[in-house]
Amino acid sequence: MSLICLIIAGLFEVFWSTMMKLSQGFSNLFYSFLTIVGMILSFAGLIFATKHLPISIAYPVWTGIGAVGSVLVGIFLFHENLNGFTLLFVGLLIIGIVGIKLTSGE
């Protein structure tokens, strides 16, 4: 249950970072509001997950989901062009997140 909550919290991190981009520097109140709601839900999920998971697992997984998810949103929603090296390092980030989880014993 904690891992599922952590994954959902990571997805809310992707959500709030996307809304922050759409808020255009917090000048659009609707997207600014969604940014804050997403932040609260993301942090709440992380807080819940750290009650049952070690912080050494929960935080890297949470930030990794947010980082990789934000890269994917940038590519597919905002049509950002990333070079091969950037994509290589995103792949390494995914491998690192999976490796942390697999070797944690949790």
Automatic annotation (TrEMBL):
InterPro entries in the cross-refs: EmrE-like (IPR037185), Small_drug/metabolite_transptr (IPR000390), Small_multidrug_res (IPR045324)
Cellular component, GO annotation: plasma membrane
Signal peptide: none
Taxonomic superkingdom: Bacteria
Localization per Swiss-Prot or TrEMBL: Cell membrane
Residues spanning the membrane: 30-50, 57-78, 84-103
Chief place of localization: membrane
Topology of the protein relative to the lipid bilayer: Multi-pass membrane protein
PANTHER family assigned: GUANIDINIUM EXPORTER, SMR FAMILY PROTON-DEPENDENT DRUG EFFLUX TRANSPORTER SUGE
Family: Belongs to the drug/metabolite transporter (DMT) superfamily. Small multidrug resistance (SMR) (TC 2.A.7.1) family.
Name of the molecule in the record: Multidrug resistance protein, SMR family
Species of provenance: Lactobacillus amylolyticus DSM 11664
Source organism phylogeny: Bacteria, Bacillati, Bacillota, Bacilli, Lactobacillales
Gene expressing this chain: sugE
